[in-house]
Amino acid sequence: MKPCLPRASLARALLVLVAAAFVAPQAFAARIAILSNKYATETAADFTAKIPSHSYAAIDTSVAIPTLNSLTSGYDAILVFEDSTYGNATAVGNVAAAFANAGRAVLIGAFYDQDRSDAPASVSPHGWGALEQIDPNTTDGTGTPYAPRTLNTATMVSHPLTAGVTSLTSAKFAGGNQAKPGTTVVAYWNEPNALGQPDPAIAFRMTGAACVIEVAMAPDYPIVGVAGTDFSGDFYPAWKNAFDFGASRCVSASGDSDPANIPTLSAWGLALTIVLIGAGAAFQRRRRVRH
Q1: Does residue 83 surpass a pLDDT of 90?
Q2: Angstrom distances, CA of residue 262 to CA of 24, 70, 185, 259
Q3: Is the peptide bond preceding residue 22 cis, with omega within 30 degrees of 0?
């Protein structure tokens, strides 16, 4: 008769394998569409050079609005921003919201706030349509303040969106927001917003299947500003984190996909668990027969 594996050893082996099943897939080389009325091409080229772990395609939304099918079939996440307000913002927001509601992440950067419907009338906002229902922040009534912003590292939450980020500064193209109820803010700026409240620097919001991430800084800063003067710090790590987190559909390596940090099984993990439970039961039956 062959020696039997002790129950304790079998249980430990099962626990190790089941624990591994709780780890969600890591970030992969995602296809990112960059939607903007200006500097989409330059921004895509800059991210291609500085964050080559993903691929980037520019879509000039001042010319035409991409269809939902073209976005869902071609891209894993999209980045929406603008440089000055423009009339297509509402249509862009509607298709971006549909993309998010289909389970793909949407990223937002300055100057998105300038075209939000609660932006000051002086900038002639058009609104972002349905995207405003699921985005993380409202404006503070003023929007981008064109004043210095420095990351408040004391407010940073340990999260995939803040991994490796230790500093971030902006001379003028950042901030001017107010977090919505239900938004998870993982870092704030040192300077308050126009309402005297904490100004979110990096935040995200889950609404059903939709995840919208906002890095409150201009994605095209390297094109319109000077590194080390107009902006400095971990600009590219912050955006890389956002692309990574968005590519994983806002599921962290620990399996967390919402602010409550509820652990979830990935599909393969659940299947593996079922197989292991069945295998363990069969092993015990054979063990009882042999003994």
Answers
A1: yes
A2: 13, 33, 17, 8
A3: no
Give dist(CA 134, CA 192) in Å, integer.
23
CATH code matching the domain that covers 31-247, chosen among 3.40.50.720, 3.40.109.10, 3.40.50.300, 3.40.50.880:
3.40.50.880
- DSSP category for residue 255: S
Could you tell me which residues come within 8 angstroms of residue 210 by beta carbon, excluding any fewer than 6 positions away? 97, 100, 101, 103, 106, 134
- 10 Å Cβ neighbour count for 214? 27
- 105-109 and 210-215: which strand pairing? parallel
Tens digit of each residue's pLDDT (9 = 90 or more) over 12-36: 444 434 443 433 345 579 999 999 9
* Residue pLDDT, tens place only, 174-211: 999 999 999 999 999 999 999 999 999 999 999 999 99
Torsion on CA atoms 76, 82, 131, 193, rounded to nearest 10: 120
**Alpha-carbon distance 160 to 256, whole Å?**
10
